[in-house]
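Justification of resources, computational component.

The compute hours requested in this renewal are based largely on the per-chain cost of generating structure records like the one below. Each record pairs the submitted sequence with a full C-alpha cell output. That output is archived, and it is also reused by downstream analysis tasks.
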Amino acid sequence: MNRHEEFTEWHVGTECLGQLAFFGVQYSLVTFLTTQLRQGNAEAARNFSMWQGTCYIAPLAGAIVADSCLGRYRTILAFFSIYIIGMGTMALSGASPAVISRSTQPAVFSLGLYLMAIGAGCIKSCVGPFGADQFDGGDAMERPKKSSYFNWFYFAMYVGALVSGSAVVWLQDNFGWLLGFGVPALCTVLAMASFLLGSAMYRYHQPRGSQVVRACQVVVAAVRKRNVVLPHDGFVLYDGPAEEGRRMAHTDQFRFLDKAAVAVAVPSSAAAQPWRLCTVTQVEELKAIVRMLPVWATGIVYCMVLVQQPLFPVQGRAMRRRLGVAFAVPAASLNSVYAAAMLVLVPLYDAAVVPAARRLTGSERGLTELQRIGAGMALSVAAMAAAATVEGRRLAAAGEVSIAWQVPQYVLLGASAVLAHIGQLEFFYNQAPDSMRSLCSALGHMTCSLGSYLSSVVVTVVSHATARGGSPGWIADDIDDGHLDRFFWLVAGLSSINLVVFICCAKRYKYKDSIN
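The structure output for this chain reads:
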C-alpha cells in the first residue's frame, strides 16, 4: 500500500468518526428539544435552524484562522478540542436528575451544543482542503488519486450519517440521552486520536496570510482611485513580483476593481502601500469570488430546503410506526434512509450517471458542476412535494398511515444532496483561485448557515401569520391540529422560484477556464 492509499484510508476513518458524532446530534436535536426541554415544534425548529446556522458559519472563522496564522493542521487540532468539550457537556446534560437538575439542564445543554457547533464548524473548512493538500495536483500520478480522495471523503461522511441515523438514534430511544450523547462524544475523542496518530504521514503547508485582508485591500484601493482612468491595455496594470503558484491572468470582467492595480506612484513602493496599490493577481482573486456570488446566493435557499429534514421525524412520530407486534420504528431512524440513499447514489452516480451524461453531452465530466446543482435543486422540490402529499394523506386518515410512506421523501432529499450539495462544494473548490480554496470552501458551508437562519425566519413568519384567532397555525405543537402539509408546499414553492433564478444565473456564469 503506497503513502496516498494509506493516508486516504486513515483520513477517511477519522472523518467517519467525526461525522458520526455530528449527525448523532443533528438527527436527534429536535427530539431532545421537544421531549426533554419541553419546547414546542415551532420553537424547536427555530432553535435547530439557529444551531445549524452556527455550525455552518463557523467554517469562515476556521478558514481565516488557518490561512492567517495557525495553518490547517493546528487549526483542526485546536477546534477538535473544543468539539470534544462540547460533546462531553451535552452528554452531561442528558444525565439523570440525580446528577443534573432540570433547572440547569437547558443551560448546560445549550453551552455544550454551541461549543460543539463552533468546534465542528471551524473544522469543516480545514479537513477537506487539508486532505487535498496531501496530493500534488500538478503530478499526473497523484491527480486522479486526489479526485478519488474526495469521493471517499464524502462516502465516509454518509457512513457516519447512516450509523447515527440507525444505531445512535436507537440508543437514544432505548437507553437515554446520557449514553445517546456519550457514544458520539467518545467518537470525537477517537477521531482526534486517529488524526494525531497519522501526523507522521502528513504534508504540511504554511499559512500564507489572510485572503480576506487581501480582498479588502483590493476594494479599498479601488475606491480610493475611483476617479482614475483605466488604461485600455491590461498589460500596464501593476502585477508586482511573481508569487509561486499564485499569478493569475487579467480578465475584462468587473473593470472597476482593476483600478486597484493602476499604479499612480512608483511601483517599488507598493509593498509598503498594500491598501493603495494591489497586484493583478489580487484583483483577479476577488473577481473570482464576485463571479460566484449569484450562484452562491441561490445555494442559501436550497439549503433552507435541506434543513426542513428535522420536521420529517416530527411528522413520522404522528404516523403508524409499529412493525408486527413487538417493534416500533423510531421516527428519527428514517434519517438512515437518507444516509443509505446517498451511500448508494454516490457510486451509482460515478458508475452510471456520469458515463450516460458523457454520451449525451460529449463532455469528459458528464455533467458540469452547475448542471449537477440544478438537477439536485429540482429533486429538492420533488422531496418537499412528496412530504406535503404524505402529510395531507396522514391528516385525512387521522394518523393511520404507515411511516413507510416517508421513505420517498427521504430518498429524494438524499439524491438531491448527492447532486446539489456535493456539486456546490466541487464548484467552489474548482472555481476558486488556488490560494483561496479554504476561504471558498468556507463560503460553500456558509450557504448552509444562512439557509438555516433563513429557515428560522420563514418558520417564525409562518407561525405568526397562521396562528391567529385561536388557530394553532400550520406548525402546531400537536401537528394533528396544524397544517404541516401547507408549510411543505410553501417550501416547495420557494424552492421552485429559486430553481428558476439559479438557471438564469447558471446561463450567465463563465467558468474559470473559459474566461478570456
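The chain is about 70% helix and 0% strand. The longest strand covers residues 322-323.
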